[in-house]
Design goal:
Elements lengths: L3 H11 L34 E13 L4 E12 L3 E7 L4 E9 L2 E4 L1 E5 L4 E10 L4 E11 L4 H7 L10
Antiparallel strand pairs: 1-2, 2-8, 3-7, 4-5, 4-8, 6-7
Helix pairs in contact: 1-2
Bound molecules: 2-acetamido-2-deoxy-beta-D-glucopyranose (2 copies).
The site of one 2-acetamido-2-deoxy-beta-D-glucopyranose has 3 residues, from loops.
Length: 162
């Protein structure tokens, strides 16, 4: 099993972070954990939203052996979309918001564990050429990944690691 933090920090940039899904194609879509159709059906995704910057903060708790964190991802929109797909593995995700020029809005989240993907659903369209950020809070156990956590931590841009 991959270390949890390493998966979060590395897999998002390598997968280009955010993608345009198959909008409007409901048939044969995978099913998210909540039973709704998941708007993307491939492990590898085309690059139509480019992540520009990741701002990651990690708070490990060495008593409970879990950690919480916040990641904020700047997106460069190359097409209009209302859905952003990200990779995340074995994380409890919460408080997902879109930081748009006109304000902060909550995003709905669908999870597709088979491909370790999250779909972030906006109730309004994210417009090509504008700058947006998405922010996610996450939590996970350090457990067996304790050593991997520290090995992986060098990649954090603004991590708090003790
Ligand atoms: C770790 O978790 C314990 C139990 O919830 C809590 O009492 C403690 O304050 C936490 N420590 C840190 C550094 O967050
Ligand atoms: C950590 O593991 C415990 C026991 O398996 C589980 O109940 C808890 O939800 C996990 N916490 C996180 C943040 O994954």
């Amino acid at each position: 099993m991959f270390p949890l933090l390493l998966v979060l920090v590395v897999s998002i940039p390598l997968s280009s972070g955010a993608q345009i899904p198959n909008q409007g194609q409901a048939k044969d879509l995978p099913v998210a954990t909540n039973g709704e159709p998941f708007p993307w059906d491939r492990m590898r995704l085309p690059i139509t939203i480019s992540p520009l910057h990741y701002d990651l903060t990690i708070h490990p708790n060495l008593t409970t052996l879990d950690f919480t964190g916040v990641v904020r991802i700047s997106l460069d929109m190359q097409e209009d979309t209302s859905t952003v797909v990200l990779h995340a593995k074995q994380m409890h995700i919460s408080n997902v918001v879109l930081l748009a020029p006109e304000g902060i809005r909550p995003l709905r989240v669908l999870e597709y564990p088979r491909f370790h993907q999250l779909a972030l659903l906006s109730d309004s369209v994210l417009t090509k050429g504008r700058k947006y950020e998405v922010q996610l809070e996450f939590a996970a156990n350090l457990s067996d990944s304790f050593h991997g956590f520290y090995k992986g931590s060098y990649r954090t841009s603004s991590g708090e690691v003790r």
